[in-house]
Write a structure and sequence with these properties.
Blueprint (H helix, E strand, L loop, with lengths): L1 H12 L24 E6 L5 H17 L2 E6 L4 H14 L3 E5 L3 H13 L3 E5 L10 E3 L2 H16 L3 E6 L5 H16 L3 E7 L6 H15 L5 E4 L2 H13 L7 E5 L3 H7 L6 E6 L2 H16 L7 E3 L3 E4 H6 L5 H7 L20
Parallel strand pairs: 1-2, 1-3, 3-4, 4-5, 5-11, 6-7, 6-8, 8-9, 9-10
Antiparallel strand pairs: 10-12
Helix pairs in contact: 2-10, 3-4, 5-6, 7-8
Length: 346
């Protein structure tokens, strides 16, 4: 509340906030009265550091704008997530961010919100609706860059384990990269595919990975394109004493991931990621542009970056803050920005 009051006073006084030229005269409706703007974040996935960081970005950008944010968390219950969209509609929100989910459960719910005159954006869930911009991290590129590093490190002939759960938009897009790389490199053999989103995800994947590694002792690379998957595989690899025999390649990053990658003889060789907090900020800014009558485009892409274990060790990166300093693109993405949108303080 104090921050919102400060925001209003600063805007009224013509003070630029966090690098944004936010002046009262420049704030378009409805952001000339930001305290009256209500938005909702409707979540499917929330377990793990990535999603906590994403939520933090949503909260910080919402606070910078001074809007009223409601967070609705379905905890991987597809039917409940659809119901929560209806709850948000009933609350009279102006905009909704749909974060992950299943196309079959969210397509109709998203359309109901649009029919109610609510602006909607979707992060990493395909709701098959031209009125709803898709926000993504270029998931195909996340997968492609990780696999290119795997080939660089291991050559174009290796035996792989692959962690995948179909039906989740970002994982499906990363799967396209995996299929392309396998087709282009016949020496890559997929010995086993496994995966689950059962909570806690890392532990559930670890249980599967133990059996997979025991049944397939020739696996020397694991493609686990989601950091909770990679954590689970690493648990199993460490327990089996295979950390010097198997290399793990993933997507997404967090402080906990950095720590795991930097452990002595860690099997986790590389990941490809954007800062999830920045993606959260972009989600809110995209919705804000729509509420102000501007067109952010049908696809809003936050570009990813390759992060290797060698880089983290050479630069002595200990956490996400260090990573942001060593990789400036982690601090801010110049995506869905406008003169009138104040950015969160750094």
């Amino acid at each position: 509340m104090l921050r919102r009051e400060f925001m209003k006073l600063a805007v009224a006084a013509g003070i630029g906030l966090s690098g944004g030229a936010a002046f009262a005269a420049d704030m378009p409706a409805p952001f000339d009265k930001p305290e009256e703007v209500k938005i909702a974040l409707v979540r499917y996935l929330s377990t793990g550091d990535f999603f906590q960081s994403y939520l933090s970005g949503v909260e910080k950008q919402s606070a910078a704008l001074g809007v009223d944010l409601r967070v609705l968390d379905s905890r991987q219950d597809a039917a409940l997530q659809a119901d929560m969209v209806d709850q948000a509609i009933a609350l009279g929100v102006d905009g909704i961010i749909i974060q992950h989910g299943l196309t079959e459960s969210m397509k109709a719910a998203a359309q109901r919100a649009v029919d109610a005159g609510i602006k909607v954006v979707a992060f990493d869930v395909n709701v098959e609706n031209d009125a709803i911009p898709q926000i993504e991290q270029s998931d195909y590129l996340l997968g492609k860059l990780a696999l290119e590093q795997a080939i660089k490190d291991n050559g174009d002939s290796f035996t792989a384990g692959y962690v995948y759960v179909p039906g989740i938009a970002p994982l499906d897009r990363r799967d396209v990269a995996w299929k392309e790389v396998k087709e282009a490199n016949p020496g890559i053999t997929e010995a086993a595919m496994f995966g689950t989103l059962d909570n806690p995800i890392a532990n559930s994947v670890a249980n599967q990975a133990r059996s997979v590694l025991q049944a397939n002792p020739n696996i020397n690379v694991v493609f686990a394109p989601y950091d909770e998957f990679a954590k689970g595989v690493k648990i199993a690899v460490d327990e089996a004493g295979l950390n010097q025999d198997i290399a793990i390649y993933s997507a997404d990053v967090s402080t906990a991931d950095i720590s795991a990658m930097r452990e002595p003889d860690s099997a986790w060789a590389a990941t490809v990621a954007t800062n999830p907090a920045v993606v959260g900020e972009v989600s809110v800014r995209t919705l804000a542009l729509m509420l102000a009558g501007e067109d952010p485009g049908k696809q809003v892409v936050v570009p990813p970056t390759l992060i290797t274990q060698d880089f983290l060790n050479e630069q002595d990166v200990k956490n996400m803050e260090d990573l942001g300093q060593k990789m400036p693109q982690f601090q801010h993405a110049d995506v869905s920005v406008a003169e009138w949108i104040p950015l969160p303080a750094r």
